[in-house]
Specification:
By secondary structure, the protein is of the alpha/beta class. It has helices at residues 17-27, 55-68, 82-91, 115-125, 136-143, 150-162, 206-219, 224-240; strands at 3-10, 31-43, 46-52, 73-76, 98-100, 131-132, 168-170, 179-186, 189-196. Strand 8 (179-186) and strand 9 form a beta hairpin. It is globular, with a radius of gyration of 17 Å.
Length: 259
């Protein structure tokens, strides 16, 4: 059994963050370890409060897990502030694949990281990323480039590579149309992963789920393209099988089975 360490915030509603990560990693057959960067009071209707963990404790948590249990891949999610980003970067081992989900821009368009934290993410974490998995608003925020067309999204993915990431998965969930396409951009080329849009309000935590699924695939020795494809099909099935909890943006069904 392979080990995946997820470093992210906790979602009290269970649909995103650490809770989504643990379910995803477990559903895909790996062992989940955690470092919690923040705890939240939230449900499907929104976030009511956030309590950020001390950066030194975050680093201690990472180092403690790695010293004993170890990790075959690491997933980075909500990191909250500059001090935590710096602490995480200092604690990351150099020989483990890292999936960076840059939790920067909410679905509503609200910016979730202050400017100094975004700068630290660019400087300290992008060069450590085996793959970065931004949505379209996050891609635009990180690169300063337009992301309206397919060519623009691919160009922005290449810009993320130029900034230090070894690969970029520019996700298309915020785009229009009945077919949604993610672009996996690597030094070797571009692969498009296209699936039909599912008209569902149950899409809370999809970014966390996708990144954790990719990290699990990498931990299990899958090539990045295969891990990304499996993750996308797993997420599609999880949205389709969502339990329908809550009055707002509900969780997906992380326990869905995929071949």
């Amino acid at each position: 059994m392979k080990r995946v360490l997820t470093i992210a915030g906790s979602d009290s509603g269970g649909g995103a963050g650490i809770e989504a990560d643990i379910k995803t990693i477990s559903a895909l057959g790996a062992y989940a370890c955690t470092t919690i960067t923040a705890v939240t009071a939230q449900n499907t209707l929104g976030v009511k409060g956030v309590h950020v963990m001390p950066a030194a404790f975050v680093r201690l948590s990472i180092e403690t897990v790695l010293a004993d249990i170890g990790a075959d891949a690491i997933k980075l999610g909500m990191l909250a502030e500059q001090a935590i980003i710096r602490a995480v970067a200092a604690a990351l081992p150099g020989d483990v694949p890292v999936v960076l989900d840059p939790v920067m821009v909410a679905t509503s368009g609200a910016v979730l990281l202050p400017d100094d934290a975004i700068a630290a993410l660019r400087e300290d974490l992008l060069p450590r990323a085996t793959v970065i998995t931004p949505n379209l608003p996050e891609t635009a925020k990180l690169t300063g480039l337009p992301v309206e067309s397919a060519d623009e999204r691919i160009a922005a993915g290449r810009a993320l590579l130029a900034m230090g990431a070894r690969a970029a998965l520019v996700k298309g969930g915020h785009s229009e149309g009945e077919i949604l396409t993610d672009y996996l951009v690597t030094p070797e080329g571009v692969e498009a992963i296209s699936l039909p849009r599912l008209h569902s309000r149950n899409t809370h935590g999809t970014g966390c789920t996708m990144a954790s699924a990719i990290a699990t695939g990498l931990a299990q020795g899958m090539p990045l393209a295969d891990a990304a494809r499996r993750a996308r099909h797993y997420l599609q099935a999880a949205i389709a099988a969502a339990p329908g909890f809550g009055a707002g943006h509900g969780p997906v069904n992380h326990l869905v089975r995929v071949d």
